[in-house]
Amino acid sequence: MKLKQFFSFKTNRFFWLNIAGMIIFVIAAIIVTFRWLDSYTMHGHSVAVPDLHGMSIDEASTLLRERKLKFAVTDSSYIKGMPARRVLQVIPASGSKVKEGRTVYLTVSSARVPLIKVPDIVDNSSLREAEARLKAAGFNIGETEFVANEAKDWVVGIKFNGTELSRGTSVPEGATLVIVAGMGGGTSIFDNDAIEADIESVAPAFDDDSWFR
């Protein structure tokens, strides 16, 4: 085969038409693909998640809808002093870029005060120790109620709203509890003077010879 014949196909019009057609097809496919990706990912239509912290649910809902975003409340937490249904946490975080129609997940404040188990302090704690344990558990301490008991400042009970609590009871976090403690000065069952008096009262009976008859 001569060299001229080998390269003769390059001068063929149909050859170049086929090459041009293939190039046009590839370019068109690339354009269509990128346009589809833009449409699917909404490229250029992202919005920033607004700062919703501290807002009420209604306020947050209005702001999110204005930005074409959805929302869902997924959790709640009690914070003392904070009104209920206030936004505490936002996922994705405020300022994040997301697609329109994205769901934003919220954690809000709860009105329900959690219940806390009262520490076991009755009949096993001094007044000072009981106060320390109750404060550490998040309770407030009311004025101590003293009752007649030989053991001074020994905890013999605990009350909430005037009702004496049984062991293992749970009450609202931050509740005010009243400790019932002994005032001391009572007569002990082991009081020495009382024991000696009893012995003296019994002793004459043993001096009577009738016991041995």
From TrEMBL:
SMART domains: PASTA (SM00740). InterPro entries: PASTA_dom (IPR005543). PROSITE patterns: PASTA. The chain crosses the membrane at residues 15-37. It comes from the Bacteria. Pfam families: PASTA. Residues 44-110, 112-183 form the PASTA domain. Keywords: Membrane, Transmembrane, Transmembrane helix. This is PASTA domain-containing protein. The lineage of its organism: Bacteria, Pseudomonadati, Bacteroidota, Bacteroidia, Bacteroidales.
